[in-house]
Amino acid sequence: MSRLITRRSALIGLAAGANGLLAGCDSLGREGPVRKLIFKGDDWNRRLQRLVTDRTALAREFAPEDRSPVFRANGTRNPDTPSYNAHAANDFADWRIRVDGLVATPLDIPVAQFRAMPARSQITRHDCVEGWSAIGKWTGPQLAMILKAAGLRDRANYIVFHCADRLRGTPYYESIDLVDAFHPQTILAWAMNDEPLTVPHGAPVRLRVERQLGYKHAKFVHRIEAVHSLTPIGRGQGGYWEDVADYDWYAGI
Ligand SMILES: Nc1nc2c(c(=O)[nH]1)N[C@H]1C(S)=C(S)[C@@H](COP(=O)(O)O)O[C@H]1N2
Ligand SMILES: [Mo]
């Protein structure tokens, strides 16, 4: 946890610096080009969010009766590749999740072992950028536990989730920073509403990163990679939609 503590003190420093910058903003005018320049880009958005909200705070959790009767599936509803279909036909018994990149001990976790790990359950609201929300219950091990088992190296800054589906020929992927990776509600869910994940919802394993919008919640995860920089991954923007449609990398809610 020393890494997190280090980052927290770094955040405090950042907040102090950002305060100065914010104070200066009044004199820059509300719509001026300078202000636009300062506020452009999700890096600033992320820092501002860090300043005004505590990113380690928990997302709201709901009661079982709050669950949505219908939880829509969105994006890829079935990766439908020969390899994925073979796994699905076999109830994903041979699915493995690789954990590699900047880790001391790369892992290759069979899904059965994964399902046997201590798990967290949480009933949360999923918010899609397309304008719909749904409440569901998610169960799975905390990502923090898996990252601790693998041992992140010092240079690791981001965690990348590689998915089994392709959209228009391009593999879906997503990434988060270490604040979200070690957030207690960041889990690798293998169950939804007390049933094993169905294919439309990301079987056999999908990410839940509850403080961010829906597109960050990578489904069909087969590889988790710790990296120093996002630039060499995909087209370098940190995720499929970030690459192809300019979505914000940091989609905090
Ligand atoms: N691998 C993969 N993950 C994905 C997507 C996708 O198309 N492929 N779509 C994203 C979007 S936009 C949303 S809103 C959620 C939808 O999750 P659901 O299908 O369980 O509702 O998954 C996200 N994760
Ligand atoms: Mo979405």
Automatic annotation (TrEMBL):
Protein origin, superkingdom: Bacteria
Gene3D superfamilies, per database record: Oxidoreductase, molybdopterin-binding domain (3.90.420.10)
Residue ranges occupied by any Oxidoreductase molybdopterin-binding domain in the UniProt entry: 91-227
PANTHER family, per database record: BLL0505 PROTEIN, PROTEIN-METHIONINE-SULFOXIDE REDUCTASE
Protein name: Molybdopterin-dependent oxidoreductase
Protein's organism: Stakelama saccharophila
